[in-house]
Queue: 2 jobs
Job 1
Amino acid sequence: MNTKRVDPGRRHFLKTAMQAGACLAVPYVIPASALGANGGVPPSERIGLGAIGIGNRGRYVLGCFLREHDLRCIAVCDVRGDNRRRAKDQVDTINGDKDCAMYIDMQELLARDDIDAVLIATGPNWHATASVMAARAGKDVYCEKPCTKNIAQSLALAEVFRRTGRVFQAGTQRRSLPNFAYAVELAQTGKLGPLKTLHAHPGGLGTDMSGWLPAEPAPPQEQVDWDMYLGPAAWRPYTSKLMNAFHFEKGGGMVGGGCLEWGSHCVDLCQWANQADDTAPVEYEPVNGQLHARYANGVKLVMRNDGWLPLGSCPVRFEGETGWVETGDDAEFAASSESLLLRRGTKIPGYPADFHVRNFLDCIKTRALTRANADAACWAHVACHAANVALFLNRKVRYDPARHEFVGDEQANRLRGEALREPWRI
Amino acid sequence: MTTKKRYCSWCLVLTMAAASVAAVAQDLPAADAKERELMAVLQSDAPKGEKAITCKRLAVYGSERCVAVVAPLLADEELASWARIALEAIPGAAADAALRDAADKLQGRLLVGVINSIAVRRDRQAVDVLVRKLNDTDSSVASSAAVALGQVGGQPSAKALTPSLATAPAGVRSAVAEGCILCAERFLAQGETADAVALYDAVRRADVPNQRRLEAVRGAILARGSAGLPLLVEQLRSEDEEHLGIGLRTARELPGLDVTKALAAELAGLRSNRQPLLLLALADRDDSAVLPVVLKAAREGRKDLRITAINILPHLGDISCVPVLLEAATEDDAQIEQAATETLVRLAGKDVDADLAGRLSPSRGKLRRVLIDLAGQRQISQALPEVASSLNDADAGIRGSAVKTVAIIGGHEQAPDLVKLLLATRIASERTEIGKTLLTICGVHGSACLPHVRPLIQGRDPELHILGLRALAVIGGSEALTAVKSAMESAAPAVQDEAVRILSGWPNKWPNDSEAGKALLALAVSAENMPQHVLGLRGYLQYIRGNKQLSNDEKAAEVKDLLTHIKRLEEKRQVIAVLGETPSVLAFDLLTTLAEDSALVEEAYSAIVQIAAQDIQGLSKEQRRQALQTVVDKSGNDGTKQRARKALAGIP
């Protein structure tokens, strides 16, 4: 495990850049004319997109990409034949031709020089490995959540994107939605007073492991490429029961599930509110069906499944000394004072990914940090994985974000990472 | 065993395994015993699936003792990945030795896996093995060895990797470059800067994929510190977009005030379409040299650069930016004006509030309007006296801004001025805005506004009378209600209708106001005007529904009396809805009667289920069962039937 400390200069840069991202209406927006994005964009200047792992969620996000006029999707890749064909039809319909290429092996797609960026929606088992492979191949990456399977993958993801200089956007699109960004702005700008407690809906807190189920006859490779589907996950025989890519190895090598389902969104928003995109809580403890964590700055993070106001899915609540605000996917607010909500801005319910995709495409051009960049995603996932370790061990654990290790806790430390199946690496 | 059962069994096994790991992890003696038990599984004829999960559990609490049992599995194509899960996690020299040993025996993918695990563990003693594998004819093996050498780092690794940049086969060279870069990072972390720079330079000059060269360029700049500036500037000026991109990224990372100043100097010389990009990069640097550069760009130059700069200022600007932004906010260009205003709204600091408030008094024209708008958007309460004085400004634009801002920071003291303005103007749009502000103020400050609102309902202008009634509805209380009731006698039909409408909605805000109840009942019973009769009925039903002073029996009795005055199906449906929420014997009986009407039967059935599902005094279980069974037998709505069945099952 790499225990190298985060470079202070880098930390300062991240802090500055992410504070900038808090103000949704003007997140370092530059005029479209400066990006060549207003009006017609010549084909030669369009961003070449490849889409990897295009099931139901992937096709939704791909649709968001295809609505943008300054890109062209060139190829799709999936280990399942039915997914490949559906995604190709989706792309060809928009492009008005039959040219979209199809791949089973993402390495072939990544080898193409005309692809600048990739959408990765394979399911959690592949997310981090595929993202890192894409960055090494010189591609910018939009990756669905959960982005990593454990703490080691989270740290590696951030490190690789730093090293390669590629743009990364985690598919935590709530960072680009006005209600969540506004709640974060209230927290960051002191409108709630000094922050005391942040609440995140984890979407479940039960940890689990995937495993080795009895073998079934494997379908032809054209239909399902089982070896590529397993990818970095430890080998096991084919079984149709593991063919749901999202649930397979969900967020988990050693410890999966847990708070990752919504935590990768809601804990992420709490991290942002606490200006903690370059760190994670230092203590985690299961308490009466909840998970309580504490940051080094004293702010408490509560992951709980119930007790929420009816404001839609993925709710968060930020409490300060003088006020509080709560919001969710309905894009409605509840707050301690109506005056807090004066500048709440446009209401956009239903958690669309369009704005997040646009932010990614803009950052490809400016090379700026995205809303959900690799470092922010890294630390939000570290917080979720560390919480899962506490849930799995059913006891309090302490984590040192500077040394990237649990304090004096070998069992917890052994749960930080997991070997990838050969030949894959991060 | 069926497939489903087998699946469940496996899930159980896995759950037990997970629980076992957690339990044992808390108890070291137990862990010791468990390790022996699991080692026995690996040495037995257990199915591979069981051995696989055993490896996973050994990763959590296996010790060096189990390594000899796990290591043989590295040669098993199906179990090697599971074995490496354990071996990568178990601390100590035994696991390292086992992996080194396996590296000398295995080939192909299995060998790649073992080398990858050595890389994760950063085993310095493995350098010799890795150097040998660097020349393996299998390019995937050689590539993994190159990266592993980089992960291990140190002079021996660097010495092996550097010549391979030129000599390795094309398919391996990218990995060799990656290994060099990783090695350079290790040098840098240990303060061995010169070695790091040498490696980065070697990669950026080598015939390797462009992405590796870009990474080396970034590393070479950062490793050199300020001395890396010329190389950074070279990237920013490059014709190659990828080099520009890595330059923009690195411009954010290379620390130092001198670097900021140098980049700022470079800004003016860059081609115009790159200036906003560099300005954004500069903005992420956050040192004292940045703000003057951004401020200058906000003040003068090309429009897109100005807007970019203005949009940056909320994040790093301070009070010193106010004059420039105010100037921009009063320009004629709509985009510049909007960007500057939004930035002024977001610029942080109470000193900014005080500055803006202080500028209000001497201001005139557009500047005054902008300042008043900002006082509202920023909620600058100390600006209220000046804002209030602008309510009577001769300039309609300033007046309009003042009206909007008073809605945000004003108090009941501004109500008289607003009323005077209303009485003085005939312009519809102005009346609408003033009316909105007055309603907002009345909503926040309540009865304190009542005396000020009275002139509106005392005048002869129906439009203002209606506005006054709406304000009273917001204020609430007996005096307000009396005024609304008396307006129902108004000679002006529009005023009368509005008064009835307001009264019918009164229980939604003031549900326990019995005076409103009486007035609504009177309307429901005796109004000759049909719309007023309907509004009275509906309002009275809402009154009954929300009144906490009434018991369920009393509510049902009130509804029973009201029913004799109801002719239309729409209101009968509302009655059914209220009865469904009023669990009592009388409500049950009324619903049973209403269910005899074929036009109402489904709504009545639904409400009956709602009541019969509850244990209500005076209503026997048998009566409840019969009613629910009737619904099950006769309802045409599947959802209602389902609810009835569920309720039936719930009766003990």
Job 2
Amino acid sequence: MRLIRNVAGVVVFLLIWEGFGRSGYLPVDYFPPPTVVAGTLADQFSSPEYLRALVATLLTWLIAFGISVGVAVPVGLVLGSVPFVRDATRSVIEFLRPIPAVAMIPLALVLFGNGPSMKITLAVYAAIWPIMFNVIYALGQVDQQYLDTARSFGLGRVRTTLRVKLPDVLPFAITGFRLSATVALLVIVAIELVNGGSIGIGTYVMQYGENVGHMDIVFAGAVVAGALGVLINSGIALLQRKLVPWGGGTE
Amino acid sequence: MLDVTGLGHAFGANQVFTDISLTVNEGELVCIVGPSGCGKSTLLRSISGLMTPKSGEILLHGQPVRGKVPGDLAVVFQDYSRSLYPWLTAAGNVEFPLKRLKLTTAERKERVREALEWVGLADAGKKRPRQMSGGMQQRVAIARALAYRPALMLMDEPFASVDAQTRFELEDLLLRVRREHDCTVLLVTHDIDESVYLGDRVVVLSRPPATVAADMKVELPAQRDQIKTRASEAFVSLRSEVARLLHGSGNSEENETEAAEE
């Protein structure tokens, strides 16, 4: 039933888009309807150059996401467990966190050049916060009685961390993963679009679409980026159901 | 086996109890009953070593307990939903404290199976806490304590969060398992009837700052019955005795206390 409703929503959206695109209100070249975009997509997926760009973006994303998880989880655990360290770093974090990653492009260009490592660095910069904050927050929220129970059975600090705190934090961390994965993708495509340079779908859209007025390619790029976002999100949601069968955290 | 002498504690300027002394002998079930705010839970937390009281001494097997939880003690809390770990199954929760003990896997599994059977949950081992009713969850918590084979089991209002029917069932369950497995239990409750129904002895605390108002032996047969025992003359006279000690005279105050406890 839910699937039917979801599909119905998409169909209605496409119909409105198609109707609007064909209405003549805007030139078809500027606002291509989905039938035109679908044709463009089909062409792109048979073009090796486009596929290379797609793979490049995905790889960049995967590396950036992996590094974000690898950095943010341990750092979050340390910051969340040691009150002194948490307090000492709080204001620095609060200062760094709201700076948009895209605003750091000039700095990153100087430091890393215009290659994948620049994209990865900025994506990591943007993506570590949601995971880190969720882990820190969740560690602070572990129910006192969970800890009392462990203590009353004589579990020490290390065992309590491993067997009580970590499983309790896990659902929050995974929620952080979902947010971070989307943010990383967003930042990578945005850098490609703004800056071009290294290979990726954003760069492809800029070269063949934006710069030469091919709006169908711009739209196709948006559709692909959106689809990637949905796929990544549902992939992590699946992971969440596998790893957190008790449905904790979010309640 | 448990000797508490001159225990006192205050939160800031607020003295919760002073000069509490009591003993629990091997194999006994002792109930502590007191009005709300008299520091029953604080007392139990002190005895369990989860917190250190301001003054007094607690000896378990002659060894002092001060802010360190003794290894042969198990606590059953009132709020089972925050005491069982939702990521573990019922069996996993029962097994949780056993992993620390030097047992083989087979011994551990056997203890888990046995403890779940004692509380009537032999088939529910694979369920997770959130798939179980409150009564079932508290049974798991009791099974967890039993499987740990503690010398002393501390219970903090263990049946206060379940409905009346389940409460009777769990009370009888406790009486049965302690009879069959020789447990020593110290149980805290605000419910006068419960304290008399369950206890071999009832320790009555006064209003805060609380002291021991009475330490009474419950002269009831070991085999108790929810209907008959509660209707017996001995039970009725004991419960009114405890009620008198708890509330003193003055009905308005009694109502106030009852209301505060709801």
